[in-house]
Amino acid sequence: MGCSNSRSGEVDKPGSAPKAVALQKKPEFPAGCKSLLCKYLTDDVFNQLKNVQDKFGFSLAELINSGVVNPNSSIGVYAGSPDTYIAFAPLMDKIIEDYHGFKPADKHVSDWDASKCNFEALEDKYCISTRIRFARNLADFPLGTKISKTERKEVEKLAKEAFGKFEGEMAGQYHDLATMDKETQNQLIADHFLFKEGDKYLEAAGLNREWPDGRGIFINKAKTFLIWVNEEDQFRVISMQNGGDIKAVFTRLSNAHGTINKVAKFAYNDHIGAVATCPTNIGTGLRASIHVKLPLLSKDMATFEKIASDNHVQIRGIHGEHSESEGGIYDISNKRRIGFSEVQLVHDMYNGVKAMIEKEKELEHAHASH
Ligand code: ADP
Ligand code: DAR
């Protein structure tokens, strides 16, 4: 997906890219608001940034709108371009340091060497499925929050050209969401392959504009390698399979990363690594997760959450963010994204799930002896 600075010749219809507006006064947040936006948009930071625009004309109002409209946000901001992290550094650096513990002078370092995964597969008895993904955006475009309809179609076009070159295990087919029938879409979502739609946080950030135009999913023949196009990020590159063979899933993703990086010009900078729309996904942009069955441990949420916290993993439901667990199955994934390599974060997930399974076994023995 090599791309130039040029934009396609088509003139966008008015409204296809949000217009930058300058805020006259700092938005009010309700009492008890816990978002990092609320915490760090001080009067001083607001006055520093209220008239700033990044290189793509992205304004403070656009950067914070999701957190203003949704005061229950945990973060509250979505970037408009790779330059947002520089132009709005007085706010973004504070949010990044609070969430990731990553300081403005720190430099992210990557390591995709899957041979360093020195662990065995986790037991399929507990591990329903393993999924590892990374988020990426193209270097020469605004992010989904600011991109125009024409630019979004250009990103999709470049993606489809690259997908057509995939060979061997990676070979597959692109499915355009705009022409996908509802039954197929709902089945792909139910089968955990396709992204959901209508997220209110993404909506308020302008990420759902002209939906579903320019959105889609690439799926390889074995349904073990998928790429989301133009959802929250321009690309979510995903390796997944049933069971707990984390090393096999990471090896596939690492190989795909090597292949794709040869043809795509992704947005990186030497401070935050890969640029993402949400600051929680910068650095590696990697989330390694296992759907794991823990019916006994999940009855003791305090212990469950302590194991998660001690191992830098987070507990989610089985249909992605803001979803619930079903049948004692939970999505366990690395919380950290930056300041640690891809190999280290896969180890975080392994260590967390391994510790949870060991505890589940202890509880099984305790129940069996009663
Ligand atoms: P992301 O990891 O890209 O942020 P979500 O957490 O929103 O995506 O999950 C997107 C989809 O991937 C959801 O359908 C979710 O069920 C599925 N998913 C996540 N982890 C796994 C897993 N380990 N096994 C199977 N499906 C998974
Ligand atoms: N819901 C938004 C984003 C949190 C992180 N999840 C992402 N990026 N999908 C919030 O600020 O809570």
Automatic annotation (TrEMBL):
InterPro entries, A to Z: ATP-guanido_PTrfase, ATP-guanido_PTrfase_AS, ATP-guanido_PTrfase_cat, ATP-guanido_PTrfase_N, ATP-guanido_PTrfase_N_sf, Gln_synth/guanido_kin_cat_dom
Q: Supply the CDD domains for this chain.
A: eukaryotic_phosphagen_kinases
Pfam families with a match to the protein in the record: ATP-gua_Ptrans (PF00217), ATP-gua_PtransN (PF02807)
Q: Where along the sequence do coiled-coil regions lie?
A: none
Q: Which GO terms describe its molecular function?
A: arginine kinase activity; ATP binding; creatine kinase activity
| Record: residues binding ATP | 129-133, 192, 236, 287-291, 316-321
Domain Phosphagen kinase N-terminal: start-end pairs: 19-101
Q: What SUPFAM superfamilies does the record point to?
A: Glutamine synthetase/guanido kinase (SSF55931), Guanido kinase N-terminal domain (SSF48034)
Q: Which keywords belong to this entry?
A: ATP-binding, Kinase, Nucleotide-binding, Transferase
Q: Which GO terms describe its cellular component?
A: extracellular space
Which GO BP terms sit in this record? phosphocreatine biosynthetic process
Q: Can you give the residue ranges of the Phosphagen kinase C-terminal domain?
A: 126-363
The record's family statement is: Belongs to the ATP:guanido phosphotransferase family.
Output the PANTHER family linked to this UniProt entry: ARGININE KINASE 1-RELATED, ARGININE OR CREATINE KINASE
Its name, as the record gives it, is Arginine kinase 1
